[in-house]
Structure formats: structure tokens, C-alpha cells
Amino acid sequence: MQWRLAFLTGLSVALSVILVGGATYTVARWSLLDQLDNELTAVAQDLATTVATNIETMGGLTSGTLETSNGLMSLVRADGVVSQMPGQSVDLLAGPEEISIARLRAGSSARDVYEGDVVYRAVAVPLTTSEGHYAVMFARPTTALESTLASLWLVLLTAGLLGVVTTTTAALWTARAVLAPVRRLSLAVKSVTQTDQLNPIRIYGRDDLGELTQSFNTMLKSLQQSREQQRQLIADAGHELRTPLTSMRTNVELLVADDKSGMLPEGARSEVLGDVAAQLGEFSALVGDLVALTRDDHLQRPHEFLDLAEVTDSAIARARRRGPNINFAVTMESTPVMGDPSTLERAITNLLDNAVKFSPSDGTIKVDLRDGTLTIVDAGPGIDEDDLPNVFDRFYRSDKARNTPGTGLGLSIVAHTAKAHGGSVRAGNEPGGGAKFTFRIPVAEVPEEFRD
């Protein structure tokens, strides 16, 4: 990138130098020619005054008279006849411009005349006498003019080349200095790729590159946290899966041994098979909760308009089947929200299942829904203050819950769902006893098509 920037800068300067140099050279050449033409015209007018005294002898002028100025002179008659100055070694021939000046008896002309390898600048002025109409033509070599223009061109070319080289070098140095943080960032990214170490990158300033580095560090931190969460999930899942698998393997080995030796007493085989079925159910529930917790496809699906009261009512129906003798004191009002009905119902069901699990068989579970806030209070012993900060952690189980069925992932799924819907969930205790869970998600405005 630095070479590209230097090249583009040098190219821009080169184009500017060409334009400015060309314009300077053109203006200087035009100005010098105009100055030379004015000078030659003044000399030609002086010569015309002298020639007018005697046309035959051209006023007594000879080549020696103009030797110091290295000039040439000729007299052009209106009919095109040209008379050269006596003693002149080079004939100064007339053209249509000079003949027109003689005939019109007014104006002046200026043009280049080529005689061999020498270029002359020739001017003509009118001369009218009693003997006829003429044009006095005077010319001088442009050697001095061309030398001056050549020197000017050399100066412009040298200055332009020096300017381009200097500017390109300065642009290269500046680009190297400016892009140094980009190179450091690139090296850091390459180091992360090669070493797999998510170390933050040092920030050298508060400019745009500093903000870019800060954003990259934020990404690294998020990636590190995600990696740690993934490792923790794998470790916790492995630990939780090991227990039912070990128990299942023990029971299966016992059944295999009983097939060979008949070692189990009557009725014991049915009990072992029942344990295996229960362990399979526990294993299936754990795998299902892991899939639900780690799957983020509902985040990509667009949320739809729904009534949270209907979702809650469906979850309560499922909870009643799991706790047939438990009473549900339900107070609900219509609550329009934007969300995914399946994940919301699963989260609310998990809260209700938790309440059913810790409530006595004849207890009452209070369910209250209003203003986007769902409150569930069970009839159990409540949650210890030490356990409150951790109840939504994956696989966390309090001492009271260790001997109860469950995977330790239900409340984690609730927290994950609340966050995905822009809401929150909080755990606490009801003053009269029992655990209290407050589940909140934003209330949505009812669309036109759903209004009565």
C-alpha cells in the first residue's frame, strides 16, 4: 500500500509539473516573441523613415549599417518586386503578408523565415512615397530567443524532476510512517492466526487506526470469552453426561451377567430395567437441553407478533400435566410482544417445571402476567441467598436440588431466551416463602392488522 500511495502521489505531482511547466513555457515563449516583434517593428519603422528619403539607394543603407544587429532588410513593392539591401549576403524573400502590407498601406506583420539552418523573425511595416507603395521588411535571427527558451525548458525540466523525486520520496516515507500501525495490526492478526493466542494488541493513538485496534481487541475479548464458555460447556457437559452413562453401563453389564449366570433374584431384573429407562430419559433430557442452549437459529429467525398470555397459558397446561395435584393461581392480561413462540414457551415451561419440582403436591403456584412481566412464585422452601447469583449458570445445582430430577440447564435456557428477546430474568424469594422468578420482555405495539 505504501508503494501504491507513493506512486499515486508522484504521478499526481508529475502531472501537475507537466501542466504548470507547459503553461509556463508557452506563456514565456509568447511573451518573448511579442517583445521581439515589438522591438523589430520599431526598428523597421525607423528604417522606413530612412528609406523614404531615397528609394533608389534605400536611404544610403548598406549591410554594414545593420551588421551590429545581425539584421536583414528588403524593400517590397506593391507589385511583389523585392529589392535587397546592398551588400546583404542573405536574400530576404517576401511573402503574401508583406505584399498585402504594401498594397493596403496599413498594419504590420510578423512571421518566421527559414534560411538554411537559421531561423529569422521577420516583420513588415508600410512605406508610402511619391514613387509608389512599399513594405519595409526587417528580420533578425531568433538564436538568442531560442537559447533563452532552451534554458527555461532545462530549468523547468530539472525542477520538475527534482520535485517529483522529492515528493515521491517524502510520500513513501510518510506512507511508511502512517501505515506502521496497520503493519503492527496485520502482524498481530497473523500472530493470532499462527499461535492461536488471543492476546490484545497495544493501542498507539486515538485516531481511526486506534479505534480499529480497539474494535479488534474487543473482538478478541469476545472470542476469548466465547472460547472459554465453549470449553466450560464441554467440560460441564462431559461431567454431567458421565454420570448417567456410567450408571447405564453398570446396569447393562449387570443384565448381561444375569443372562449368563442368573444371579439376580426374582423381580430385580425389572427394577434394573426401570433404572435403565429412567437413565435413558435423563440422558435424552440432558442432550435436548444442550441442543436448545447451544442452538442460535432462533436468533436468525424473524420474530413474529404474538400474545404472551397465550404462550403462558399453553405452558401452564403442560405444567398441570406434570403436577396434577398442584394448584395454579393464574392472573393474566393480554400482553403483545415480538418473539419466537416456541422458544418463549420452552423458557416459561422451564420456569413452571422448576416451580412444580420444588412445590409440595398440594401446593399453589402463583402466575401473574402484566405489562410484559411474568412473575412465577412456587410453594417451596425458596432459594438460599448464596445460591441466588448462580441459579442461571449452566449445570449449577444447589444442595437442595442435587437429589431432584433435572439437567441443570433449564434456567440457563430461560436466561438465554430472555436475552435473545431483549429482556431479562431475575430470581428471588417471596416474603411469605417460596422462590420467585420475574421474566420480562419488551411490550410491542399492536400492528394495524391485529387491531379490532
Explain what you see.
Keywords: Kinase, Membrane, Phosphoprotein, Transferase, Transmembrane, Transmembrane helix, Two-component regulatory system. Residues 176-228 form the HAMP domain. The chain is an alpha+beta fold and 452 residues long. It is 53% helix and 17% strand. It has ten helices and twelve strands. The protein has helices spanning 2-51, 96-104, 143-178, 180-195, 208-261, 268-294, 297-300, 308-322, 341-358, 410-420; strands at residues 72-77, 82-84, 109-115, 118-129, 132-141, 304-307, 327-332, 336-339, 364-370, 373-377, 424-429, 435-440. β3 and β4 form a beta hairpin. The radius of gyration is 52 Å and the shape is rod-shaped.
Using the CA coordinates, give the radius of gyration. 52 Å
- The rough form would be described as rod-shaped
Measured distance between first and last alpha carbons: 63 Å
Find the structural class using helix and strand composition. alpha+beta
- Element string (H = helix, E = strand): HEEHEEEHHHHHEHEEHEEHEE
Kindly report the spatial arrangement of strands forming the biggest sheet.
Answer: 2-1-5-4-3
Largest sheet: 5 strands, antiparallel
Q: Would you report the number of β strands?
A: 12
> Helical segment tally?
10
- The low-pLDDT segments are none
Mean pLDDT, to the nearest integer, reads 81
Strand content: 15-25%
Helicity range of the residues? 40-55%
